[in-house]
DNA sequence: GCCCAGGGGGCTC
DNA sequence: GAGCCCCATGGG
């Protein structure tokens, strides 16, 4: 029942947006670096920082591990909170060096529960970033929840307003087929819906592909006004 | 020139 | 464990 609804939501989003080609990166290291840098900032700002790191030959954890903070910081200024972001990149590179001799692949190969737990113990890695890394860098099953996901589900009337991260993640994982490609695309599509149609200030519910299923859209009168 | 995006850490009670 | 502030750029 729930699975049917979730797949229906997926279909509507996919018909509207098509393949999102997420995560855009050339290497797994780039996925992880991007996942840290994108926290609380747009992807376009993140891209700028990734290009700067690339230009400075800092787009690898080996290089980040060697580099002093004041060399990393100027590269990531565009990602807001740049001192914090530089520290987070450094913390990840230090962790990898200390525990996996810098071998990201070896780290990512672990079973999801262990991998996730270790990720969450690294400075700067919270639940969302951990799941980005498990799914998009590790290619393993973990559903990513973000603020858009929470808002969209609440507006659809499917989940409680204040459902927590772990609760929502478990709910998706219990009600979706265990398919990495599906998890990948589903989160990317929710992100697109959230970005384009489901912001708190500008709930432009039309032409949101989910409007036909959405309680919020049906209650709000933006359809008939202007 | 002002508002605000939308994650994580750290503190408080 | 919920609620709050801090981080501090750039696009609309």
Walk me through the structure.
The protein has 226 residues and is mainly α. It folds into 2 domains: 2-20 and 144-217, Endonuclease Iii, domain 2; 28-137, Endonuclease III, domain 1, CATH 1.10.340.30. 61% of the residues lie in helices and 0% in strands. The chain has helices at 2-17, 28-37, 43-55, 61-66, 69-72, 82-100, 104-108, 112-120, 127-137, 147-156, 165-175, 180-197, 215-219. The longest helix has 19 residues, at 82-100. Residues 221-226 have low confidence and may be disordered. It binds a DNA duplex (13 and 12 nucleotides) through residues 38-42, 44-45, 77-85, 88, 123-129, 146-148, 151, 194, 199-201.
Task: Reconstruct the topology from this structure.
Elements: H1 2-17, H2 28-37, H3 43-55, H4 61-66, H5 69-72, H6 82-100, H7 104-108, H8 112-120, H9 127-137, H10 147-156, H11 165-175, H12 180-197, H13 215-219
Helix pairs in contact: 1-12, 2-3, 2-9, 8-9, 10-12
The structure holds a DNA duplex (13 and 12 nucleotides).
What is the architecture of the largest domain at the second tier of CATH?
Answer: Orthogonal Bundle
User: What is the CATH third-level topology name of the largest domain?
Assistant: Endonuclease III, domain 1
Beta strand count:
0
For the report, how would you describe the main beta sheet? none
Mean model confidence by pLDDT: 92
- C-alpha geometry: globular
Structural class by secondary-structure content: mainly alpha
The secondary-structure element order is HHHHHHHHHHHHH
